[in-house]
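Hello,

Our lab assistant flagged a job as stuck in the queue for most of the afternoon. It eventually completed. Since we weren't sure the result was trustworthy after the delay, we are filing this so someone can double-check. Below is the sequence as submitted and the structure that was eventually returned. Let us know if re-running is recommended.
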Amino acid sequence: MTTGRYHLALTTGGRPLLHGWWYSETTARRKFAAWIGRHGARITLTDEESGTLLTQWPQTQ
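-- returned structure --
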């Protein structure tokens, strides 16, 4: 089994809580939106193929 191209990671206090990999960027972004609002969490969405950080929450200055 292979993982999808889009990796979603939710961390809090520097520790991973949830991970997900999707083949569809649309699905990954929908999951990203659903995960926002978790208390004290940091969420990143990365394109694993290119290594590009697509978005994160909270946004960094």
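-- support follow-up --
The delay was a queue issue, not a problem with the job. The result is valid. The radius of gyration is 11 Å. The chain is about 20% helix and 45% strand.
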